[in-house]
Amino acid sequence: KGGEALAPFWKRVKRSGARIEAVGTDMGPAYISAVRSNLPDATLVFDHFHVIKLFNEKLTKLRRDLQREAEAGLGKPVLKGIRWLLLKNPDNLDDTRDERQRLNEALKLNEPLATAYYMKEELRQIWRQSDKASAEKALAEWIAKAAASNVGMLKQFAKTLAAHRSGILAYYDFDGLSTGPLEGTNNKIKTLHKMAYGFRDT
């Protein structure tokens, strides 16, 4: 995860003479610093996949914290079994397995969790706007709403998005630049690693 891991890459970039206008990356400080040091004129585009992924990680932690705090016997089992339901796209909930009903029951029992969950769905809308101006408005509204909530996780995430506002909105300047293809390659590599477990040689 350290920026030094990219040193050989930067050398190849400089030798190639490539003129890079934008770089898609997550919001990790090491990557941001590496890009700014080696490509000071390039625009940082924070990948929307990673923004949502980061929010999901915070949402999972919030659920765990609330689960621990729950004192009522009913609260614990309902909150305990809904991690993947919280992370699922609402359109993908399986009604034949009562997933939507279980999720709704859990959200009714806990207002902070419900607030964070619905804010997650609103967050996705930032990258579904028709133009940058609309996205800027949607992002500003999301940040304001999260900052005004009574949920500490949302308040902190609002600060994170505000600090990375320009890189998030740069998505609209570079035709939806995303690290998606790279993530797909990484997933294939992980699958190969699992398949090759126990092989005696390459």
Query: How can the largest sheet be summarized?
Result: 2 strands, parallel
Stretches where pLDDT is under 50 for at least 5 consecutive residues are none
Mean pLDDT, to the nearest integer, reads 84
In spatial order, strands of the major sheet run 1-2
Rounded to the nearest angstrom, the radius of gyration is: 20 Å
Structural class: mainly alpha
Helical run tally: 11
Assess the beta-strand content as a share of residues.
Answer: under 5%
The tally of structural domains comes to: 2
Shape: globular
Secondary-structure element sequence?
HEHEHHHHHHHHH
Q: Distance between termini?
A: 26 Å
Number of strands: 2
State the helicity in percent bands.
Answer: 55-70%
Q: Could you explain the architecture of this structure?
A:
The chain has 2 domains: 1-46; 48-163. The chain has helices at 7-16, 29-38, 48-69, 75-80, 83-87, 99-109, 111-124, 132-147, 152-163, 165-169, 180-195, and strands spanning 22-25, 43-46. The protein is mainly alpha-helical and 202 residues long. The protein has a two-stranded parallel sheet with strand order 1-2.
Index terms:
11 helices, two-stranded parallel sheet, 202 residues
A few lines on this structure:
This protein is mainly alpha-helical. It has eleven helices and two strands.
Furnish the topology, listing elements before pairings.
Layout: H1 7-16, E1 22-25, H2 29-38, E2 43-46, H3 48-69, H4 75-80, H5 83-87, H6 99-109, H7 111-124, H8 132-147, H9 152-163, H10 165-169, H11 180-195
Parallel strand pairs: 1-2
Helix pairs in contact: 3-7, 6-7, 8-9
